[in-house]
Design a protein that fits this description.
The protein is an alpha+beta fold. It has six helices and 15 strands. The longest helix has 18 residues.
Length: about 300
Amino acid sequence: MPHGVRPFERHDRDQLTELVNLHIAAVLPGVAVSVNTVMSQLEREPLESTVDPWVIERRCLVATDDQNRLHAAALLHHFGNGPGVSPDFADAAEIRWLICRPDQLDDGRRLMEVCIALLDEWNVENRYADGSLPAPACYGVPYAWPHIGSLCSAAGFAPSREETVLRVRCADLIQDDRPPFQVGRSAGVLGTRFTLSEEGATVAFIEVCQLTAELTRSYASIGWADVGNLHVDDGVDPKTVIPHLYSAGAEWLLQGGIEMLIEYHSGEDPKEHLGLLEKCGFETLVTNTRGWATA
């Protein structure tokens, strides 16, 4: 390995966590993850219940100076070819994340070179890159990390799509008028589900997820939640039901002291949906480029 690039060692954990939080802070205000959260991701990612079991090897590498100050770090995943592995991940490897101090890009480049050499050693056909740190909204390569985007581009990776992460204060979502439907609350697949029903038939639902589960060991997470599922039946006007769905979810979250709600809009979503989000009060938190891969 080049001078200063080596495998992660346990004594690096505090510096690594500081570097992780430097990048999280540029995406999600008020959230900083703990050392335990970072160390846990190096071992496994239980929230990635489909993809994580396909990983057969994990490597964490760091770049340091002569005083052992950590300037860059990367986590790599090597996927297996066993039964049940998706074709996109069979014979594949991923730079799960690579982070670097913006004023130490030379170390970031050296680390990226070692990452590429490791992908060569694994002899995989499909090569991906991402920025999935253990915090909400930190995935792909956010626009807030231009230095990481430049490192990935220089290494031959290119994104395939964009996704906008939006946020709103829960208090701004509350509707004064009552919805023309019955409102129900239940446990959902990805969070607490709120349904709108007409004559006993559900016409739309939303699931809101408290991010305390994802950030159990974070220093600040209780103020955030996100939308896990949103569904409106065909033939139902989204403009009629979606504001009431957000209102029902927001009112519930506020009772638990959760003040901010995150929503997502990808290029595959209808443009009208983005306009409706903005009309409800959502504003862009960050735009993330996704699907980074080599040609």
